[in-house]
UniProtKB/TrEMBL annotation:
Binds 1 Fe(2+) ion. The gene is def. Belongs to the polypeptide deformylase family. Coiled coil: none annotated. This is Peptide deformylase. Its cofactor is Fe(2+). Pfam families: Pep_deformylase. Transmembrane segments: none annotated. It is an enzyme of class 3 (hydrolase). It catalyses: N-terminal N-formyl-L-methionyl-[peptide] + H2O = N-terminal L-methionyl-[peptide] + formate. Gene3D superfamilies: Peptide deformylase.
Length: 177
């Protein structure tokens, strides 16, 4: 089922998500809905609070929107960054801030510990784009959106631009109803 993406400044995006106590059919259904929603909206990652569910669940598929969509699905339940190294600066966007893209500084490499779709613990390591996606989505679980990572001046300018983009987005969504 495709779920509604919460749009900034929705309060749920500022809240910290709660850990999953048990990976069960309800959690797996949430994950399935998240993938369906992300693919429909053209994203490469999604955190549960972006669809209004304050649970520590993240999905990523760097092949989203391409012919290999679904080939590299990553499910992270209760993810925790356990190592970070280096630095990179790259452009980020977000389904919850439609149309806004800004350069953000992130670690170049991260290692994350999490549970998978079946509730089994695993670790994933990522560099470059995968490292960026992991950090971006885990930030969401902590109530942080990518513009929170900008300098105060950059953030203010981004929010001014976003206000205009949001009005266009809202008109577009209203016309699709």
């Amino acid at each position: 089922m495709v779920r509604e993406i919460k749009i900034y400044p929705d309060e749920v995006l500022k809240q910290k998500a709660q850990p999953i106590e048990e990976v069960n059919d309800e959690v797996r259904a949430l994950v399935d809905d998240m993938f369906e929603t992300m693919y429909k909206k053209g994203g490469v990652g999604l955190a549960a609070n972006q669809i209004g569910v304050l649970k520590r669940v993240v999905i990523i598929d760097l092949g989203s929107g391409k012919e290999n969509q679904g080939k590299d699905k990553i499910v992270l339940i209760n993810p925790e960054i356990v190592a970070m190294e280096g630095e990179q600066v790259g452009e980020e966007g977000c389904l919850s801030l439609p149309g806004l893209y800004k350069k953000v500084k992130r670690a170049k490499y991260v290692k994350v510990k999490a549970l998978n779709y079946d509730g089994e613990e695993f670790e994933i390591e990522g560099e470059d784009l995968l490292a960026r996606a992991l950090q971006h989505e885990i930030d969401h679980l902590n109530g942080v959106v990518f513009i929170d990572r900008l300098s105060p001046l950059q953030r203010r300018l981004a929010l001014e631009k976003y206000k205009k983009l949001k009005r266009k987005y809202e008109k577009k969504m209203a016309s699709q109803r």
